[in-house]
Design a protein that fits this description.
By secondary structure, the chain is of the alpha/beta class. The protein has one domain: Rossmann fold. Helices cover 41% and strands 13% of the residues. The protein is built from seven helices and five strands; from the N terminus they run E-H-H-E-H-E-H-H-E-H-E-H. The chain has a five-stranded mixed β-sheet with strand order 3-2-4-1-5.
Length: 188
Amino acid sequence: MDEVVLARHGESEASAKGIVGGDTPLTAAGRAQAAALGSELAGVSFEVCLTSRSARARETAAIALAGRDVLCAVVDELGDIDFGRFEGRPLDEYRAWIAAHGPVDRPPGGESRVATLRRFCRAYRAVLARAESRVLVVAHGLTLTSLRDDPPRPLVTGAAYGSWLRLTRAELEQAVARVERWCEAPSW
C-alpha cells in the first residue's frame, strides 16, 4: 500500500435519531453524503475498497464507487465500537458514560476505547500489508479521528459523515505507531 483514503460512512437512520450503533441503512442525507464523497474522490483510482461489516459503511462505499470497477471487501476489525448495553440507546447516554470513565473502562457488555483502538491498529497494519497501491477504507468516525487526533479524544466527535482523510504509507505508519504508543499508556 502506498496511499490510503479513510472515509466515514454517511448518516444512517440510527444516527439521525441520535441512537448509538444499530445496523441501519443510510438516510437520504447519508446517500447524498456518500455521493458527494464519490464526487470528491472521482480523480483518485483505487484498487480495493475495504469496509466494516455495517450496512451504512457498505452502502456508502457502493454509492461512492458507483460506476467504478473496484473490488470491495469487508474487514471485521474495522467494525464500530461495541457499545454493549448502550447499543440502541441515545448517543448522549454513551457520551456521558465515556466522560465519566477512563479509556480502559468497558461499558457493560461492550468494548473499551483502548480495545477498540488496538483492534483498529490491527486493521491498519493489515491495510499497510496489502499489495494494492491505493486503498479506500470506508468505516466509522473513530477510524478517522484516531489517526487524526493526537492524542485520541474520549468523546465520539470530530469526523463529519462522508468526510475523509488521505494518508501516504509513511503517514499511516506514523499515525498507527502513535496510536499504539497511546494504547500502552492511555489517558484523557
